[in-house]
Automatic annotation (TrEMBL):
<dbReference type="GO" id="GO:0001786">
    <property type="term" value="F:phosphatidylserine binding"/>
</dbReference>
<keyword id="KW-0449">Lipoprotein</keyword>
<dbReference type="InterPro" id="IPR041263">
    <property type="entry name" value="Gasdermin_PUB"/>
</dbReference>
<dbReference type="GO" id="GO:0012501">
    <property type="term" value="P:programmed cell death"/>
</dbReference>
<feature type="domain" description="Gasdermin PUB">
    <location>
        <begin position="251"/>
        <end position="419"/>
    </location>
</feature>
<keyword id="KW-0963">Cytoplasm</keyword>
<feature type="domain" description="Gasdermin pore forming">
    <location>
        <begin position="1"/>
        <end position="230"/>
    </location>
</feature>
<dbReference type="GO" id="GO:0042742">
    <property type="term" value="P:defense response to bacterium"/>
</dbReference>
<dbReference type="GO" id="GO:0070273">
    <property type="term" value="F:phosphatidylinositol-4-phosphate binding"/>
</dbReference>
<dbReference type="GO" id="GO:0005886">
    <property type="term" value="C:plasma membrane"/>
</dbReference>
<dbReference type="Pfam" id="PF04598">
    <property type="entry name" value="Gasdermin"/>
</dbReference>
<dbReference type="InterPro" id="IPR007677">
    <property type="entry name" value="Gasdermin"/>
</dbReference>
<keyword id="KW-1134">Transmembrane beta strand</keyword>
<dbReference type="InterPro" id="IPR040460">
    <property type="entry name" value="Gasdermin_pore"/>
</dbReference>
<dbReference type="Pfam" id="PF17708">
    <property type="entry name" value="Gasdermin_C"/>
</dbReference>
<protein>
    <submittedName>
        <fullName>Uncharacterized protein</fullName>
    </submittedName>
</protein>
<comment type="similarity">
    <text>Belongs to the gasdermin family.</text>
</comment>
Length: 450
């Protein structure tokens, strides 16, 4: 709930994407101005949601002590209020493929959310940072510097934060009516109505979002870069490049997806059913998606110190099969699942809902081929491209509407033109559509019955 609120805030006040939402209320204190965050080198260009991790270390802690006792000035700028009030109801039915598991979920859900938050900006004076650069050098023997230099990870300085001006309350109420029919090994049927209320009290001065600048280190000298793709230890070697880009076309993307998801194709029919059930659960519940993503990211960071567990029964089978009875984590399985979750995390909630409907209607394979065909177009050009209508000839009208909406929510426009479709898109749409391709590919593997 907190993460969704910060994501909504970021979309409203900074749609250009350089303001980053804080994901955890517990960790918010580590994302204040002058704190350092780290990020692994970017592996895939379609991930706009960069994974920045707290270090718990401020910039001053990695600098060699100097004679200057000047404190860096963190200035508060103007304040403003962000309001969001929604009231709605949605009804959908999801039925997983009958070939290997019969599960039907029918829900009629209503929700009411109220968010009104007064916030302020807190930022570091650029002049103060420039002064500090000339006065104090980097301590190259600091443990975090030595560790990140060895692992080729990047460091960033938080130069601005959006904080609450006063204590705020987030309120969310849900009502849900429906039934769940499931037949895997045990037959059961559940029917009922459920209501829930969730309230989060956000304290005064809580950090909701932040902006960063790359920290560049060369020998003992350092500087703050204004180019977001610059690397911290670039002087140690050649700058790393993205694994692929729109210039490489769909072939590079397809090769990467096949490699990253290879282990999913080797799962037994039973395990594919269990994995698919959990993936569907996180698709229709953004809180579960965040919970599972954070857990698996922590497992990938340090498998020896992480235990995979959840109180949600929808994740139980998946987490049990990602580790053995002794608790040892199978990273070869965590990798492709996390890769899939990152792709899902790039999609909008409306896209995710339509993705769940697509699994239910068993049209994922057709959508995969359609998206693949669109990605082959030249997105550097603004001219419209043409697609063969045979790509969607097997889809019924409702299925076509679901598919078209899911693709257009990613920034590509599609319009029927006689026996074909015409479409337009830009480089941002190419990136968004690539994430959809990854999600469809993984779901296609998990939905196979053979």
């Amino acid at each position: 709930m907190f993460h969704k609120a910060t994501k909504d805030l970021v979309k409203q006040v900074a749609p250009d994407g350089d303001l980053l939402p804080v994901t955890s209320l517990i960790d918010q204190d580590h994302f204040r101005p002058l704190y350092l965050v780290r990020k692994k080198p970017k592996k895939v260009f379609w991930m706009t949601r960069h994974c920045y991790y707290k270090t718990g270390v401020q910039l001053s802690a990695i600098l060699v002590p100097g004679q200057d006792s000047r404190n860096l000035d963190i200035q508060d700028s103007h304040s403003f209020t962000v309001e969001d009030c929604t009231d709605g109801r949605v009804k959908w039915t999801i039925k997983l493929p009958e070939d290997f598991v019969s599960t039907e979920l029918t829900l009629d859900a209503g929700s009411y959310q109220v968010k009104s938050i007064k916030v302020k900006r807190a930022e570091v004076s650029p002049a103060d940072l420039e002064f500090l650069q000339g006065e104090r050098k980097i301590n190259m023997d600091h443990s975090i510097i030595k560790d990140l230099r060895k692992r080729r990870e990047n460091l960033y300085v938080i130069n601005e934060a959006v904080q609450t001006l006063e204590e705020s309350t987030l309120y969310k109420a849900n009502t849900m009516e429906g039934n769940i029919l499931n037949d895997i090994c045990v037959h059961f049927s559940l029917k009922g109505t459920r209501g829930s209320k969730r309230v989060i009290i956000i304290p005064k001065d809580c950090v909701l979002a932040f902006r960063i600048k790359p920290l560049i280190i060369q020998s003992e000298s350092w500087c703050i870069s204004h180019h977001p793709d610059d690397e911290t230890f670039v002087a140690d070697g050649a700058t790393a490049q993205s694994k692929y880009s729109p210039d490489g076309g769909t072939e590079d993307l397809q090769t990467d997806v096949e490699k990253e998801c290879a282990e999913l194709s080797q799962l037994s029919t039973d395990l594919r059913a269990k994995f698919l059930k959990s993936i569907i659960a996180v698709i229709i519940n953004s809180d579960l998606l965040q919970e599972l993503t954070l857990q698996l990211e922590e497992a990938f960071e340090d498998a020896d110190k992480c235990e995979l567990k959840s109180e949600n029964p929808d994740l139980e089978d998946l987490l049990n099969n990602l580790q053995d009875s002794a608790g040892s984590i199978h990273l070869y399985l965590v990798g492709p699942v996390l890769y899939t979750l990152h792709a899902l995390g790039e999609l909008t909630e409306d896209q995710l809902l339509r993705l769940a409907q697509s699994v239910q209607k068993q049209i994922v394979s057709e959508q995969l081929e359609l998206v693949k065909s669109i990605l082959k177009q030249d997105f550097h050009l603004k001219d419209a491209f043409t697609l063969d209508a045979k790509l969607v000839s097997s889809l019924q009208e409702e299925e076509l509407n679901i598919t078209k909406a899911m693709i257009e929510l990613g920034g590509v426009t599609l319009q029927r033109n006689g026996p074909s479709f015409t479409g337009t898109g830009d480089l941002a749409a190419f990136s968004a559509l690539s994430a959809l391709y990854v999600a469809l590919y993984a779901l296609h593997l998990l939905s196979r019955s053979e």
